[in-house]
Each structure stands twice: as C-alpha cells, then as structure tokens.
Amino acid sequence: MSTGLQIRNNATEGAFEAVLDDEVVGRVGYRVRQGRVVLTHTEVDEAHRGKGIANQLVRTALDDVVATGRRLTNFCPFIADYIADHPSYKTLIDAEHPGGAAVPDRAPRTDVVHDPS
Fold first, then answer.
1. How distant is the alpha carbon of residue 53 from its chain centre?
2. Which of 59, 111, 115 lies closest to 82 in space, CA to CA?
3. How many CB atoms lie within 10 A of CB 37?
4. pLDDT at 29 over 70
5. Nearest Cα residue to 34 out of 102, 100, 96, 103
6. Cα gap 55→113, rounded to integer Å
7. Domains, the chain, ranges and CATH?
C-alpha cells in the first residue's frame, strides 16, 4: 500500500529526506554552523527523478531556514537555480558566507514546473 511522498527533517543525519513507501528516495544534505544552515547537496534516486521530488525537498529545506530565522550558505547548484526561480529566498543568503554555488543573476524561468500535480 502506497503511503505517498513525505518530506522529513532527519536532524541526526543532517538531511531533509523524501520518503516514499518507507524508502528514502531523495535528500538535501545540510549542516548547522554558527547560526547558519549550510546546504551541501541535493540528490534523488534515479528511478524517482523528474517527479518534482527535488523541488519539494529544496522548498521544505528553505522554508525551514525561514522558520528558524537562520541565514543560508549554499554549495548546491540545484538549490542555487531553485532560488533564482524563487527570488524571495535570495534574502536568506548570508552575505559573508554565501557558499560555493552562486545564485544565477537571471529572471525566474517560466518553463519549469516546480509543483507538479
């Protein structure tokens, strides 16, 4: 029986995890350092790519940064592109410690589906 996709914060592992039928199928890795959330990478199992799982993971991780009032340091190019497409998240980036994946300076893409039905 399918339990549907769930996103959970596994603080012990330092990851937001996408769980489908009790199996972890994707994750956004993170660390908390000096009041900042350092996002390190996004990954989704190959069999589950193209279903919007990575977007859901990133949105959940960024919303958690907002909710906790922390700043963001980003090293993941996928997350940088997501932020470029959702510019309201740009204000989260720590100016002194932005990370190694710069947010592209471009208009949000309109041809990308972020919330598939």
1. 10
2. 59
3. 20
4. yes
5. 96
6. 9
7. 5-92 (3.40.630.30)
> Model confidence at 1, in pLDDT bands (50, 70, 90)?
very low
Written as six digits, the tokens of 96 are 């002194």
SS3 91: helix
Q: In the chain, count of helices (H) and strands (E)? A: 2, 5
Q: Cβ(31)–Cβ(13) under 8 Å? A: no
Q: Is the pTM of this model over 0.85?
A: yes
> Contact, 101 vs 74, CB < 8 A?
yes
Confidence of residue 108 (pLDDT cuts 50, 70, 90): confident
Which stretches of the chain are DSSP H helices? 53-68, 77-85
- Residues across the chain: 117
Q: Token pair of 104, please?
A: 């592209």
User: Residue type for 23, please?
Assistant: E
